[in-house]
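Issue: ligand-bound run for pyridoxal-5'-phosphate - logging full I/O for the record.

Environment: standard queue, default settings, no custom constraints.

Inputs:
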Amino acid sequence: MTRSTYRPATLLVRGGLDRTNHAETAEALFLTSGFVYDDAAQAEATFKGEISHYQYSRFGNPTVAMLEARLAALEGAEACRVTATGMAAVHAAMLSHLKTGDRVVASRALFGSCHWIVSTLLPRYGIESVFVDGADLAQWKEALSRPAAMVLLESPSNPMLEMVDIAAVSKLAHAAGALVVVDNVFATPLLQKPFELGADVVVYSCTKHMDGQGRVLGGAVLGRQKWVDEVLQPFIRNTGPSLSPFNAWVILKGLETLKLRVDQMCRNAAAVADFLAERLEVSRVLYPFRPDHPQQALAMRQMSGGGTLVTFEVRGGKEACFRFLDALRLVDVSNNLGDSKSLVTHPATTTHMRIGEEERARLGITEGTVRLSVGLEDVADLIEDLAQALDAAAPSHEARAAE
Ligand SMILES: *Cc1c(COP(=O)(O)O)cnc(C)c1O
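Outputs:
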């Protein structure tokens, strides 16, 4: 790699590649917990920070470093640290930066475990947390009229695919003194560029589209060099959420096909959304780039593609919805997403069961809400499967006519 201006498809294949003196083609897998020194003086110089030498894989590892360099190049970030899971990334980004007495403002529509950190964990340490409706700028303005240490947001959100205006919220957040952390999992690094919109830190679950083939867990935090070196790295180094070199190697291989997969999954998702919108058994379809999405204009301004997820509402409540889910033959029922296999989730009884009925109602999640992560199967096979399952779920024609 001699240029830093390569396009994403090139960076995904070659970014961060650091060959050994064996000149191997593919990224080498360094399954080693530790490293040795030529002599005691070299060890001393390493610990003093006078020379650059790997010390211990909790602090750094050559395979893991290749993944960090590739993700930083792709995101256009100064620095990246990867972690064992996406939640370890979110946790490290937040807890490395926050202290007792701080205020955190977050969009309400967060991934379940992110919601738990903000609502339950932070207050235990004397950190105040405030939730706002992410789509409502007036609520952000109100919450950020007082100083805050951090803003955490997710866009598009899980599972209702609600958009947050990242540029507008970043401006308000910076005026309040807050670090803006964006969970960019649903958009992937290819469809949305939070740093260009004003974010300070971007977090990912590499488990989702980056591996994308259902094999390993992983997470990533990206930000400015100074913040990563002085705030994040000491936290990760001393608390140990490190990513296994093997998992880093699997994710490096996954990234090589990320653009091919995400582009095709977006095309499949758009076609599936259009198909679902025509079905009588479906009362509502949410897909960011469809004209009937309440924030289509913002989505098209902020993202370069509609994404790989479609959320929709099956008429007839939980019973009809479960009939639909159980009738699927190709699409699997699973709480994962971003996989090459299409996966379908019933948020009210799984991923969003614990937040309670009131909070679900506030987010717009009903007993009929279905989140579909569209994969790489032939889209005609997917549509045939969804069609036969909707037929099986349909309430009687009389009931339908009455609606
Ligand atoms: C999956 C996910 C996470 C957590 O990632 P893990 O790898 O499962 O720990 C965080 N945020 C979003 C939006 C996710 O989809």
